[in-house]
Amino acid sequence: MPAAVRARGQGGGVFVADAAWTLHSDTRAFRVGDVLTVGLDETTQASKTADTQYAKDSSVSVSPLVIGGKSKKTGIELGADRSFSGSATSTQQNALSGSITVVVHEVMGNGLLRVAGEKSLYLNQGEEFVRLAGYVRAADIDTDNRVSSQRIANARIVYSGRGDLADANNAGWLSRFFNSPWMPF
């Protein structure tokens, strides 16, 4: 949480050094406690394909036994064939758009602003959360006090939900068990 700034008593002039609104500056965030609007412009797309095949053949046979100059047929032969063929394809696409207003929690020595914020939306079938944290350069903030999520360093953006709709999109415990690495079959 940002540190609260105590009001100091001043007398006299029109200029107040710690005032948030002045006649000669813009309203961009640059201090602890200032707010900043982040435009969420995230789109990801990933694709992966794997194909694996291998085969191994082996055989063993025992030569006929020779006892006292006579060969005896043993009829022992072993053979093994092993093969494996596997393939997998995975494709994922995600998009997140909107905006969230965050608070400046720290101004670092190099001028970076550490920001974090959360938005909670209660919809008719549950609750949705958007959380964002990261570092913003003051130079990337536009005159409307906005910055794109593409310009946030070490951005951590979380979008999740709770409620009936979120529960319906999750597999049950039995399905998770049968699809887990612990299931040997």
TrEMBL record:
Keyword field contains Membrane: yes
Domain of life from the UniProt record: Bacteria
Keywords: Bacterial flagellum, Cell outer membrane, Cell projection, Cilium, Flagellum, Membrane, Signal
Localization, UniProt: Cell outer membrane; Bacterial flagellum basal body
Function summary: Assembles around the rod to form the L-ring and probably protects the motor/basal body from shearing forces during rotation.
UniProt family annotation: Belongs to the FlgH family.
Record's subunit section: The basal body constitutes a major portion of the flagellar organelle and consists of four rings (L,P,S, and M) mounted on a central rod.
NCBIfam families listed in its UniProt record: PRK00249.1-4 (NF001304)
Protein's UniProt name: Flagellar L-ring protein
Protein source organism: Rubrivivax gelatinosus
